[in-house]
Amino acid sequence: MSELTAHIADLRKSYERAELNEEASQADPLLQFDQWLKEAIAGEVPEPNAMTLATVAGNGRPSTRIVLVKGYDERGIVWYTNYDSRKGRELAANSFAALQFHWVELERVVRIEGVVEKVSAEESDAYFHSRPLDSRIGAWASPQSEVISGRSVLVTNAAKYGAKFLLQPPRPPHWGGYRLKPDNWQFWQGRRSRLHDRLRYTLQADAEWLRERLAP
Ligand SMILES: Cc1cc2nc3c(=O)[nH]c(=O)nc-3n(C[C@H](O)[C@H](O)[C@H](O)COP(=O)(O)O)c2cc1C
User: Could you give the cofactor binding note from the entry (predicted)?
Assistant: First the structure.
């Protein structure tokens, strides 16, 4: 083992900031998520709305990347992206996906699983037009997840679409939102001696949430 990997093997931390229990947690996981996200924002956690999105290709091979949550309500969790990207192609082949937030400073993780669908064109339009101009041009300029010959491709595309659309770029047809409708949530709170708290919420046939504690 190299000196560096020996050092990594010794890295460990005791989690002691808070607890998560059946009495104090919300019966509705969306409300629990809302509370924790608000606490992450109030606690000035860096990029509190950044989440890992896992998708699975048609051949069963998983992949992950980070995206930003841009909305959530009882219908699900929303983010925006390029529909032709790798994640877009994988979601077209297999609509099951998983999301994960890790708020390091709060010693908290939220895991969410469910089925994904595209948001309506009106919803994507509304969000697209709320974005800064350079982001709207960027959605046209970047063939996300495709191989390009160099950075100059992006610079040239941005100049081309900037000149074409001036201040009014329309939403590209290949760009928009996805919504994951959760059927399974997990909330993890780090605790002392690796005896962490984990609460899982599973959607039942009667549309009620079953809350269970999992061993850490
Ligand atoms: C903090 C952070 C936020 C990001 N947010 C988004 C996002 O909201 N939408 C998006 O398409 N890519 C976002 N990205 C880039 C993705 O992680 C990823 O590189 C890109 O979507 C291509 O992924 P794919 O090839 O797996 O489809 C973000 C990256 C970081 C580091």
Answer: Binds 1 FMN per subunit.
- Nearest ligand 1 atom to the CA of 55 is 26
pTM of the model: 0.96
Catalytic residue, chosen from 108, 194, 211, 213, is 194
Model confidence pLDDT, tens digit, residues 46-103: 999 999 999 999 999 999 999 999 999 999 999 999 999 999 999 999 999 999 999 9
Q: Which of 68, 80, 145 to mutate to test the pocket of ligand 1 (most atoms within 8 A of CB)?
A: 68
- Please give the annotated binding residues for FMN, written as ranges: 65-70, 80-81, 86-87, 144-145, 188, 198
Indicate if 213 belongs to the active site. no
User: What is the average pLDDT value for the chain, to the nearest integer?
Assistant: 96
SS (H, E, C) the chain: CCHHHHHHHCCCCCCCCCCCCCCCCCCCHHHHHHHHHHHHHHCCCCCCCEEEEEEECCCCCEEEEEEECCEEECCEEEEEEECCCHHHHHHHHCCEEEEEEEEHHHCEEEEEEEEEEECCHHHHHHHHCCCCHHHHHHHHHCCCCCCCCCCHHHHHHHHHHHHHHCCCCCCCCCEEEEEEEEEEEEEEECCHHHCCEEEEEEECCCCCEEEEECCC
Binding residues for substrate: 12-15, 70, 127, 131, 135, 194-196
Specify the residue with its C-alpha closest to ligand 1, atom 6.
Answer: 67
